[in-house]
Amino acid sequence: MKNNVQSFLESGLLDKYLIGATTVTETVEVESFIAKHPEVKEEYDILQDHLELVSKTQAIRPPSYTLDVIMDAINDKPVVQLHPTRRAPFWFSIAASIAALVFAGTSYLFYNQNQKLLNENNTIADEIFDLRDDINNNNDKLDDVMRQFMKLNNPETEKYVLRGNDRAKDLKTVAYINPIDKSSMIDVVSLPELSEEQCYQMWAQLQDKMVNLGILDMSDQKLKSVPYIEDALSLNITIEPKGGNKNASLENSVAEIPLKKDN
User: Fold this and answer.
1) How high is the pLDDT of residue 120?
2) Do 146 and 160 contact (CB within 8 A), yes or no?
């Protein structure tokens, strides 16, 4: 039964199913394996998690007050109504002069308001240019994520799931290693909480030494590139003092997985 599951995982049908490229017969086969075999379901869930990396790219939205500023600009725009002129008695000239002074004061007020609105419009224009820069930056980030996703689905990429031992039962980290293009990435799925004076550190084991691959941190829960180590025999995760250690504390090992070796 395990051979059937392994053959299915290596067939690539799960990847095709995830992107909707399977035939009706293949879809039935994939869904049957997902329903019957927990390891297939786990593989499917992990692939879905990585697809969500693309959709999680933050979209840039304009400031919340932009619409209000535009509406205020429309509503505050001075409106001058024209009325038919009528002949008025001479004694109305004094009242007309006073009205003219009031009108001049009102016009000045409107002028100041329009200048303020003009300044606000210029500010909005500057913010729009800033938003365009942010959108371009996000597009670049999206391209990086897409390239990472392509690496994950490369047939040459080997996946290793590191699970915690009794000291860290909820620990789960997935490593993706491509020996052809010599690249390595890890995805921190879950890390049990440690004291403030401790941290998790990943290592690659060679014949005679342990090579530091960096500190694992849940605050950086995304695909992360790590150094590719030629001829590594296994991957290890240990508990180390805060800030990491130069040498692995193997007595504090919480996860280990051997790496496949090319024949």
Assistant:
1) 80
2) no
- The predicted pLDDT at position 67 comes to 57
The Cα 205–Cα 203 span in angstroms is 6
Query: Do 247 and 228 meet the contact criterion of CB atoms below 8 Å apart?
Result: no
Q: Give the chain's mean pLDDT.
A: 79
At 173 the pLDDT is: 92
Tokens of 186: 């890890």
Count the Cβ atoms, other than its own, within 10 Å of residue 221: 13
**pLDDT of the residue at 160:** 93
Cα–Cα distance measured from residue 246 to residue 244, given in angstroms and rounded to the nearest whole number: 7
Report the run of H or E that residue 39 belongs to, with start and end: helix 38-55
Q: Report pLDDT for 191.
A: 93
Q: Could you give the CA distance from residue 187 to residue 221 in angstroms, rounded to a whole number?
A: 7
- Helices 38-55, 24-36: axis angle to 10 degrees equals 110
Which residues, 6 or more positions from 229, have their beta carbon under 8 angstroms from its beta carbon? 184, 204, 206, 211, 213
The residues with which 185 forms a beta bridge, in sequence order, are 176, 225
